[in-house]
Specification:
Elements: E1 3-5, E2 23-24, E3 30-32, H1 41-50, E4 53-55, H2 62-68, H3 74-89, H4 97-114, H5 116-124, H6 134-152, H7 157-169, H8 175-182, H9 190-209, H10 215-222, H11 242-256, H12 268-278, H13 283-292, E5 300-303, E6 308-313, E7 322-327, E8 333-341, E9 349-352, H14 364-371
Antiparallel strand pairs: 1-4, 2-3, 5-6, 5-9, 6-7, 7-8
C-alpha cells in the first residue's frame, strides 16, 4: 500500500458528501471509512493538520468508478453521486463552485451513459428528502432527462454538458422557495409569484457572481422558461437558445412526474402525452417520447395477466417495456418476482398503477436484486 497526505487530494473531497476512499491515521490504521462524510471545512482542516493519509490504490476517479464498477454496485454509486451533487449545490456563491459542480457532473454523465435505463429509474423513483433539498434533487432529475434527450438527438458532448449545467443551476435563485412550495397545498402568493417570474435572471446573476463566464450556459439559464412563441418569461423573447428549449422540456417532464404535497405525480404515460400534445411540433418532446417510451423504468404497471409489477428496462417499442411482476392478479405479493415479456399478448401492459395501490415496498437492496432478473 502506498499512502499520500489527505491534503494532496483535497479536490476529491466535498464537504458533507460521502468520501470516495478510506482515510487513515499516520500509523496506517483506519480512521474514516469510505462513505462517511467530513461535515465541515474546520473538520477537514483539522484532519490535514493531523497528517491523515489516503491509500493511492483507492484513488480511482469517481468517473472511472462509475464506468468500471460491477453492475450490482451501480445503484449504490447513484446514491453517492446524488449526495455529491447535493453537497456541491448547497453553497453556489462560495469560491470554487464551478469546479465543484464539474467534479460532480462527471460521474453523473458516466452513469447515464453506462446504463440509461437505470438513469431513467432514478428520475421516476419517488423518495422523501429534506425540504431544503427538494429543488436540488428536482434539478438533478431534469439534468438526467435533458442528457437523455440530448443523446437521442445526437448532440455533441460539449452541448450536452452545457445542458446538464443549465438544468442543475436554472433554479439557483429559488431553491429554498421550491422546497416551500413542494410542501404546501396553497397557491403561490404575490411575493412568491414575483420570485418565480424573476428567478431565471437572478439565477444567471448568481452564476456570474460565482465566476461563471460561459455565455451559452448563462443564456440558457436566463431563457429556460422562454418559448419560441413569446409566451414564456421573464422577457417574452422569441429568440430562445436550443439548450434553453431542451432544458425547459426536461424541466416540465421532471416536474410533472415528481411528487409534492397536495398533488399526485402524473403517471408517466399521461405526462408524456400531455407534453407532446401541448407542443406537437416540439422536437425535444418528440425525442423524449422516443427515448423514454410510455412506460419508463421505475413505472408501476398492471399487466393483461392481472399481475402488477415494475418496469425495469425499455423494450423494443415504446409500449412494450420489460417488467418484473411483483403481485398476482389478486394483488397479493408473489413468492418471487418474475420477469415478463410485455410483447406477448398475455402480458401486455394494461395501465399504470400508483405505487400506493400495491402491497409492496421496494428498498434499494430489493431494487438491485430486481434489476438483476
Amino acid at each position: 500500500m502506498q499512502f499520500a497526505p489527505l491534503a494532496s487530494v483535497k479536490h476529491r473531497v466535498m464537504i458533507g458528501a460521502p468520501l470516495p476512499f478510506n482515510v487513515y491515521n499516520a500509523d496506517h490504521s483506519l480512521l474514516l471509512a469510505a462513505g462517511k462524510a467530513i461535515d465541515t471545512a474546520e473538520q477537514f482542516d483539522a484532519l490535514t493538520t493531523r497528517g491523515v493519509l489516503v491509500d493511492l490504490d483507492e484513488l480511482l476517479d469517481p468517473v472511472d468508478v462509475a464506468r468500471r464498477a460491477p453492475s450490482a454496485m451501480l445503484q449504490a454509486i447513484w446514491t453517492e453521486s446524488r449526495e455529491r451533487m447535493v453537497a456541491a449545490m448547497r453553497s453556489p456563491l462560495t469560491p470554487g463552485f464551478g469546479e465543484r459542480l464539474e467534479h460532480a457532473i462527471g460521474p453523473l454523465e458516466a452513469l447515464v451513459q453506462r446504463d440509461p435505463d437505470l438513469a431513467i429509474l432514478q428520475v421516476m423513483r419517488q423518495e422523501h428528502h429534506p425540504r431544503r433539498e427538494y429543488g436540488i434533487r428536482h434539478s438533478m432529475r431534469a439534468s438526467v432527462v435533458g442528457l437523455l434527450i440530448a443523446s437521442r438527438m445526437g448532440w455533441s458532448g460539449e452541448d450536452s454538458n452545457i445542458a446538464i449545467k443549465c438544468a442543475l443551476t436554472m433554479n439557483l435563485a429559488m431553491l429554498e422557495l421550491q422546497g416551500v412550495l413542494a410542501a404546501s397545498v396553497a397557491e403561490p402568493d404575490a411575493t412568491q409569484r414575483r420570485e418565480i417570474i424573476t428567478h431565471p435572471m437572478r439565477s444567471r446573476r448568481m452564476l456570474e457572481s460565482a465566476g461563471i463566464t460561459d455565455e451559452r450556459w448563462l443564456r440558457a439559464v436566463e431563457q429556460h422558461h422562454e418559448q419560441p412563441d413569446g409566451k414564456g418569461y421573464p422577457a417574452g423573447t422569441t429568440e430562445v437558445s436550443e439548450i434553453a428549449s431542451l432544458v425547459r422540456c426536461a424541466d416540465i417532464y421532471a416536474a410533472t412526474v415528481g411528487e409534492r404535497q397536495g398533488r399526485e405525480p402524473l403517471a408517466p404515460d399521461r405526462a408524456l402525452r400531455r407534453l407532446y400534445m401541448s407542443e406537437p411540433n416540439n422536437p425535444y418532446a418528440a425525442a423524449l417520447v422516443k427515448e423514454l417510451g410510455l412506460y419508463p423504468p421505475g413505472t408501476f404497471v398492471s399487466l393483461a395477466s392481472g399481475e402488477a409489477g415494475i418496469v425495469i428496462r425499455r423494450g423494443p417499442t415504446i409500449t412494450t417495456p420489460v417488467v418484473v411482476a411483483m403481485t398476482n392478479r389478486y394483488r397479493q405479493p408473489l413468492p418471487e418476482p418474475a420477469r415478463r415479456d410485455t410483447s406477448l399478448p398475455g402480458y401486455g401492459v394494461s395501465s399504470v398503477v400508483p405505487a400506493r395501490d400495491l402491497p409492496i415496498q421496494i428498498k434499494p437492496q430489493t431494487m438491485t436484486a430486481i434489476l438483476a432478473l
